[in-house]
Amino acid sequence: MRVAIVENTRITHHGQVGVALHEEAALIDLWKPWSDNALPTTDESDALVVFGGEQSATDDHTHPYLPALADLMAAYTQAGKPVLGICLGSQLLARAFGAENHLGTAPEFGWVDVTLTEAGRADPVLSQVPDTFPIFQWHSDTFTLPEGSVHLAHSATAHHQAFRIGRATYGTQFHFEASRSVVRDWTRTFPDLTERMQPGWTTAHPGIATTRGAEADSHGLVLARAWVSLIL
Questions:
Q1: What is the pTM of this model?
Q2: Residue 205 CB-density burial (10 A; 0-12 exposed, 13-18 middle, 19+ buried)
Q3: How far apart are CA 161 and CA 173, in angstroms?
């Protein structure tokens, strides 16, 4: 299988999603539109992954490729090809299907508990993890659900944590790709930003990583493998 991965920032870790794709010997086509505005087409790959970034889903003035990327996610979905949008990717997916993006209204950071809805407990991907599970978050924005989508998970701060459109298009506000190694690198690379999101994070992070972070690692890989199985 061939998978197009869209990175929206200069430091993008594929993390657990990358592990699951490489386990299945996926061929990866990597796109970095933040640097050149180039995007794949629906003819090039069997599935599409859109990762996060520091921009909002409506920052067309600074990232002019965003409307085209949202349209591309819709086109892959309409072609019956699996789509995965994580964090900014989920916000763009919501935009692609007519939902509203709400900026700065739902800040979350760190390993946060997410709870499945009834539909989530029956979903082929989300049902693979416990009803409530810790997973990494780093966002301030949220969105309304697209009409016709299936609401899969919520948290105390951001009600719309995960949704599905059709068979295999998923948006997750949480970063299930973010293993402890990924989080450690983010903490080292962006100390000012992480401290702003959660004061004391740099000091607290190692201890939290050994407990909730370790649990989240296993859940993230389970979710990644379950979504990748939809491409096969």
A1: 0.97
A2: buried
A3: 5
